[in-house]
Amino acid sequence: MNLAHWRLLVAVADEGTISRAAERVGISQSGASQALAQLEFSLGFAVFVRERRQVDVTALGHQVIEHARTMLGGLQAIRALADDSQGLSGARIRLATFPSIVSTVLPALLRDFQRRHPGIEVVVVEGTDEEVEQWLDSGAVDVGVVMNPAPARSPVALGSDAWVAVLAQTHPLGRRATERGIALDELAAEPFILATGGCTVNGQRLMEDAGLHLADVRITVRDWASACVLVREGLGVSLVPESTLPTDRQGLRVLPVAPGIRRVFGLVCSEVGRASRATQVFVQALATAAAGRAS
Fold first, then answer.
1. Mean pLDDT score of the chain, rounded to an integer?
2. CA 267 distance to own-chain centroid
3. Which of 164, 209, 269, 278 has its CA 20 to 30 A from that of 240?
4. What is the C-alpha separation between 229 and 251, in angstroms, rounded?
5. pLDDT band at 82 (very low <50, low <70, confident <90, very high)
6. Are residues 83 and 118 in contact, defined by beta-carbon separation less than 8 angstroms?
7. How far apart are CA 2 and CA 6, in angstroms?
8. How does 201-220 read in b/e, with b if 16+ C-beta sit within 10 Å?
9. 3-class DSSP state for residue 151?
């Protein structure tokens, strides 16, 4: 039994379902179910009674959870004391990023950091990728998430995802394409829904980089999800990052682009951030967490 088990135990008690608890602590639902089974086996009794839509806490489980809350609270207090001894308590880190990263990559990383360093406040500022770069240059923020950062900027790799083609389920192009993917030149000739996500790197930029031109841009939207809704209605095809795809893909056909194209997210410091001890602690913590998730 380790701290991850106890955090999961408390999360299940708070959330009422294993799926929501797993999301809260940043693991898969199957992993959470396995971890709970291991913990209950080690204890020798059931902590939860599993119902179809929720879990209830047993009588002994209530006592275990209260002890777990006390233990985790004590750990938080120790970590706050450690931050205070290093002059980090009350520090504020300004983090700039573009919208799609806020909802996908960052939540679990920020949660882990704030659990380990409760005395450090992280303020997240949303903007386009161009705005993020401007804020970094001016020192308005300490650290920022940028797209495809150059190695000279010493970025911390946070992740990457592939660009994918999104078509209506019945689109003829989808029926002709193979599982190996669809070429950009095939998409460029189609009525196109251009989604930008607030980023300069979008479907139009990808086409231009490949020496192509979008023949018929029907609608331009900022939100990736809006593009998928319009594609589902048969108004055109689109290119979106895989991580932004909707959970409900009914009516859509998603195909890889051939040859494949990926976008990489990296965390970089401004001059102000490089001089900030709290920011350097933050960067190192996220580097360690990202490396652990990748492995």
1. 86
2. 13
3. 269
4. 9
5. confident
6. yes
7. 7
8. bbbbebbeeeebebeeeeee
9. helix
* C-alpha separations of 145 from 44, 97, 99, 203, 282 in Å: 46, 5, 10, 20, 13
pLDDT digits (tens, 9 = 90+) for 52-80: 778 899 999 999 999 988 888 888 777 77
* Tokens coding 250: 């009914």
**pLDDT > 80? residue 44:** yes
- The pTM of this model reads 0.64
If phi > 0 it is left, if psi is from -120 to 50 it is alpha, else beta; for residue 92 that is beta
Residue with tokens 């009350």: 90
Q: Which two tokens stand for residue 83?
A: 């931050």
Task: Say which amino acid occupies 44.
Answer: G
Q: Is the dihedral of CA 138, 132, 273, 123 positive or negative?
A: positive
Residue with tokens 């294993």: 18
Q: Who contacts 172 (Cβ-Cβ below 8 Å, separation ≥6)? A: none
CA 105, CA 291: separation in Å to the nearest integer? Answer: 13
How far apart are the C-alpha atoms of 263 and 197, rounded to whole Å?
13
Which three-class secondary structure state does DSSP give residue 165?
strand
Q: Would you state the structure tokens that stand for residue 258, as one six-digit string?
A: 């051939």
Rounded-to-integer distance, Cα 76 and Cα 226, Å: 41
Between the CA of residue 207 and those of 35, 186, 188, 196, 231, what are the distances in Å?
46, 11, 7, 13, 18
Compute the Cα dihedral for 41, 46, 52, 54 and give only its sign: negative
Closest CA to 197 of 233, 168, 161: 161
Amino acid at 157: A
The helix (run of H) or strand (run of E) holding residue 188 is helix 184-188
What is the gyration radius of the CA atoms in the chain, in angstroms? 23
